[in-house]
């Protein structure tokens, strides 16, 4: 009966944390759609959604209800299994990323020491890359299963774009990992808290490359070519309706939240609140302050994503590929060499 | 060729400098422009709560006028119908009988007076044509309706409230 020898408290603790983080991600994603519309409106001198509830705060719920109530349409010529699998896969892949993000230090609840991270994997960042790459399958399968030429084109674009920019992203990351010496996100954050500076100071070029690639990975403007309405109608989710469409749209926002969280953790100290001595307050409160800090950093990043979206028009496809292969990858390689040289000189 | 204005400019074909080719600076400039719009005043009029003021010469729905004693001014002369370029007005005249002096100002009145608001172009020529000051255009517009028939406004829809019996409604309709 080895199963009884398991630490059941540990399993329950992790399950509760998974539930909280998944639900919180969904809730934040829901309100990110609202934020997107509001930010767009304010940047364009409009009031934005303001009818449902005070300041339009119930708008995302109304949108969600609308999506659920809509008719489910599966095109006759579509591959039914893959058609249903696509949005599910996209959603799963984007939610899986949150497993390795350290949301805070640790709290003591009912005498248990609870780390505010679902899994402190020692290859955390590698795991994130693996899962993010899987997100492409969701788009690819959805686009292919729709049996629509626009969807297929869009899916091909999304896949090739993701692959091209993942290279530069990984190279930018290698430079960071050379300075930290660890793949674990928790360790990277702890190093930044203990060290004097956040990683952004050591890796400014790396961050710029990483940020641009993150925009491309999330299919955000100016890299939202898979959704270029003027060329592809609506993109890979052309044939989707109801909650399946909702899943695709949601997955995009969750991807945005997760990449913001990863950027905040890797380059901006994660849950570290600057100029604040965590030891001066009770550890539980310090942990909560840390969680709040990380959330604020995420919100700022999301705002930056939106700000960029409502400022810059999208690239042409050849420009996108040129930028990815001829600019980002050489720059990332240069950044890596530079970091290596400096590290060698310091030895 | 002689230039019409002095605004013509030669196309600048100078190759972009390194910083211009980087784009990042120009992107940041553009983002600062959009950011500055966060603090601009919104020109939005939140419709059902706020309404935009009509211009003083706005021509809206027709009103059939009464005189101070509450008698209809219209004598069904038909000049408005003749003047109407859209042929939206039809009417039937009737003769006033004994005992109706308090209802109609003159011996002849409009028994039926209809304006098709879907035909009407709100030009105001009927107002100009009327010798009795009996029709004028108000500052309201025709509300939505489910049927075409609903847009044919008859006398009950057009007549202004009686100033003798419904003074407040009359004042409201007059817009004074």
Topology (SSEs and partners):
The complex is a heterodimer of chains A (347) and B (176).
Chain A lengths: L7 H36 L15 H11 L10 H17 L9 E4 L2 E4 L8 H22 L3 H32 L4 H10 L4 H4 L1 H14 L11 H4 L9 H26 L15 H27 L7 H30 L1
Antiparallel strand pairs in A: 1-2
Helix pairs in contact in A: 1-2, 1-10, 1-11, 2-10, 3-4, 3-10, 4-5, 5-8, 5-12, 8-10, 8-12, 10-11
Chain B lengths: L17 H5 L1 H13 L25 E3 L14 H5 L5 E7 L12 E9 L8 H5 L5 E3 L14 E2 L1 H4 L8 H8 L2
Antiparallel strand pairs in B: 1-4, 2-3, 3-5
If you had to describe this structure to a student in words, what would you say it looks like?
The complex is a heterodimer of chains A (347) and B (176). Chain A has helices at residues 8-43, 59-69, 80-96, 124-145, 149-180, 185-194, 199-202, 204-217, 229-232, 242-267, 283-309, 317-346, and strands at 106-109, 112-115. Chain A has 347 residues and is mostly helical. In chain A, 67% of the residues lie in helices and 2% in strands. In chain A, α3 (80-96) runs parallel beside α10 (242-267) and α4 (124-145) packs antiparallel against α5. Chain B starts with 17 loop residues before the first helix and ends with a helix. Helices cover 23% and strands 14% of the residues of chain B. In chain B, strands 2-3-5 form a 3-stranded antiparallel beta sheet. The interface between A and B is medium-sized, with 13 and 15 residues.
Key terms for this structure?
heterodimer; A: about 350 residues; mainly alpha; two-stranded antiparallel sheet; 12 helices; 2 strands; about 65% helix; B: about 180 residues; alpha+beta; Alpha-Beta Plaits; three-stranded antiparallel sheet
